[in-house]
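Margin note from the TA: students keep mixing up input and output lines. Inputs are the sequences; the output is the structure of the whole complex. Example:
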Amino acid sequence: MSGLKTNNAVIRWIEYRLPIFSFIDHAVGSGYPTPRNLNYWWNFGSLAGLALVIMIMTGIMLAMQYTAHVAFAFDSVERIMRDVNSGWLIRYIHTNGGAFFFIVVYIHIFRGLYYGSYKAPRELLWILGVAILLLMMATAFMGYVLPWGQMSFWAATVITNLFSAIPLVGESIVTWLWGGFAVGNPTLNRFYALHYLLPFVIVGAVVLHIWALHRFGSSNPLGIEANGPQDKIPFHPYYTAKDAFGVGVFLLLFAGIVFFAPNLFGEPDNYIPANPLSTPAHIVPEWYFLPYYAILRAIPDKLLGVIAMFGSILILFVLPWIDRSPVRSAKFRPIYKQFFWIFLADCIVLGYIGAKPPEGIFLIIGRLATAYYFLHFFIVFVLSYVEPRRPLPNSIGEAVLKGGGAPSAAVAREKA
Amino acid sequence: MAHSANPTHSGDGETRRDFLYLAAAGFGALGTALAVWPLIDSMNPSAEVRALSSTEVDLEPVEVGQRITVVWRGKPIFIDRRPQEAIDAARAVPVKDLPDPQTDEERVKKAEWLIMIGICTHLGCIPKGQTAGDPRGEFGGWFCPCHGSHYDTAGRIRKGPAPKNLFVPPYEFTTDTAIFIG
């Protein structure tokens, strides 16, 4: 009951029996003290939550109209687009919502990389986040298969075939995934079932993610722990208001795409019904998978390519132990900060290469960018021992109130 | 009550209760595994799917140099009535230089007829080369556009990420101009 003061008898009655109001207050209310210096990069966590809710709501409505059968799936999606009341809107929100979900989550992840949010004591929080990313990728992939267009079909074929790279049991695993000797009706059915299930698994993982977050609270741009009340402000109304502003900007951009460029992220070939006997000349995954696709193709060996592709994400799980620097924020790590931006550029290059055919100069750039992706983590490991660090401010309150985070003479000298 | 509060000890500190714990846990794990297996196996192809496993093809109308595609188990089967130059080209290659060494003779039953599963052994795309005007890759066979694998006139991988030659399905010539796949 701490912090909850109300004259409303009904709320008091409920609260005494089920303390849900104080629970909410401690989660996102005035009872949750939050660092006072969070910048706008900290908006993306709540935006990711919003995107998940939008996806689940529109997804349930689509599920009421969709038919998971190879003979009807494509037509049922076209019926949603043409006949179902507001079906076009719901589907465009759902398809573009997936893209925006990934945009938000990638920004959220790179914010964590820049500000060292993955470091002790928040390693599990970070690991849960990477797990959520993997779940999102699986969910997005299976959702992409459901319209049963050419891109759907060949995405399903290529991605399930990744598992055939596993020695000895690979082929049996792929047959098991398919439920047949090729991608077919059993595959579509199970992907639909899993596409419906996994978002709720994500919700579960998000609950754990937020639980772990609340154990130590948000990190912050300075990367130092909040010392006392002068370093923190209540989540409500300060960050509820700031998050709400972010939601407004997000929805503005989102609505812009949904209403004015709904197929911007899509592939025209997916409006051709699936044909198991003809692969489109140029198949590419959705943009949010392109960097991994580039890594897969950069390596001329099938098994090693698949290992590298999965490894590019799995390495994030151990990042808290690769980066041994005690300083979290790149603000105080002048060299790490530069490598962060190079790494971000490398990921963008990989994304660009993933969309290009694997030949000539693109193949060479793809290989260099792939090598650098993994080299980055080695650099981070070495940097954490050898990098000269800028002095940290004594407290968040001090840095914020004096302006520009210049509490000590050392920092002042560097600025001069 | 006095009995149960005083378990029988053997010499080295182990008790009958330890054994009971292990036996119960082991039995529980085994039972769980047995119960889970039908759930996992339900995702494997059913007998009704496995039954659709053979295809007969009449080769009579296929002309020299023509490539046709038929379907077996939902997969495309490439049938290539190879001209003599293609056979010679395939047989002229030193086998030991190949990524997946196999002679042309090992891959065909009759030199003229090359019969293969038309699925790239990399990640399952359908290679180009079956219809006129398709790119056939650097070795005159097939070319997979997805990740750039080149196959030669015997369907052997020559360049690119695919690890294996195009698979040859089990088949038999039932007459001189008809085959039974499966």
